[in-house]
Each structure stands twice: as structure tokens, then as C-alpha cells.
Amino acid sequence: MYTYITYGSSFFLDKIKRKYSKRQILSFYNEDNAYLYEETDDKSMFSAPQSFTNVINDGKLLEKPTLLLYFIVKEARQEVFDTKPFPLEKLNDYEGYQAFRLLRPKRGETYVATFQFDRKSQIDDFRKSSFFRENFSKEALSMYQSEDIMANIYYSKYLYVEKPEGLTEAED
Fold first, then answer.
1. How many separate domains does the chain show?
2. Which of left, alpha, beta for 125 (phi over 0: left; psi -120 to 50: alpha)?
3. Dist CA 18 CA 97 (whole Å)
4. What sign has the CA pseudo-torsion 140, 146, 149, 153?
5. pLDDT at position 172 over 60
6. What letter does residue 160 receive in the DSSP assignment?
7. What does pLDDT average to over the chain?
8. pLDDT tens for residues 74-95?
9. Beta-bridge partners for 40
């Protein structure tokens, strides 16, 4: 299974989603962009997607508040990280938990952990949890990253189902 993520103007991405309506494409937004997220065994129909291999699939992704956590796993540690046992059964203990994906890049070293909950406030609470701290905090991931601190990436994006007021509808 593969995951493809692309982003851009809502006007353009909404047209893509309509054109490929038979595919299971999820739409998300944040304050800057619209996002399309597709899981498939097929090739991507996006022209320049972020492309990943799904390492872990837990739950069913829907159009609900989602956290994308981007982080580096250096190439020499990817196999070890990909086989790390995560206590996935504990995720169901968190209120509003919907789905989790661990995504390995098809090229490069930037992984994505996708967490989905019913509400953003539940994602915020989850980020304070022992599960997150022990498995996905910057400190927990440091053993898989480069010794060169400047080469390490660790950032997150919140994605929402509703289009923010500031996100333009017009074609860019």
C-alpha cells in the first residue's frame, strides 16, 4: 500500500478530486493550503506527490482532524525503525482516536506519522501522552536520526476538514 500527498490551492485540488471521483481521495485544509491524501496500491494520479510506502496501517482514515508529523530517519537506521514494535493497542485508549499510519518515503529519509482523531483538541491531548512522548517525540526519534543536528527535520502540520476562511477559492 502506498500513500500520496499533494498540496496547493483549493481551487485546483478540488478539480483533481472531482476528476478522479472514483478513487478514495481525502481532502484536508490548513491555514495555508489544501491537501489531497490518497492510499492505494495503484500509481498516483498527482503530478508531483509526496510518495510513501505504508509501514503501519491502524484504523480507517476518514476526513477528520489529522496530524502529519514529519521526521528524519537516517538511511542506515530505516530497517530498524520500520520493524520497531509500537504498542498500537494502546491507541484505542485515547478518546477520539481514529487512525494511525507510519509512512516511509519512497525516496529520501523524511518519514511521516499520520494521526487522526475526531477533534483537534484530542490530537493536542494525545501529543502530551506517554505513547506520543515515548515513540514520536523529538527525543524518542533522536536515536534514528543523523548525528548532524542541522540535518534533522521534525515538524508537524494540522489538517482540517473545513476550509479556513482565509484560504482562497480563486485560481492562483
1. 1
2. alpha
3. 29
4. negative
5. no
6. B
7. 91
8. 999 999 999 999 999 999 999 9
9. 2
Q: Cell 514520536 maps to which residue?
A: 136
d(CA 138, CA 80): 17
Run of H or E residues at 51: strand 50-59
Range of the domain at 116: 2-159
Residue 155 resides in a domain? yes
**Angle ∠(53,56,62) on CA atoms, nearest 5:** 90
How does pLDDT run across 100-135, given as a tens digit for each residue? 999 999 999 999 999 999 999 999 999 999 999 999
Q: Among all chains, which residue has been given the C-alpha cell 483549493?
A: 10
Are 6 and 36 a contacting pair, CB within 8 Å? yes
Could you tell me if residue 32 is left (phi over 0), alpha (psi between -120 and 50 degrees) or otherwise beta? Answer: alpha
Whats the size of the chain, residue-wise?
172
CA 14 to chain centre: 19
Q: What is the CATH number of the domain that holds 37?
A: 3.30.70.100
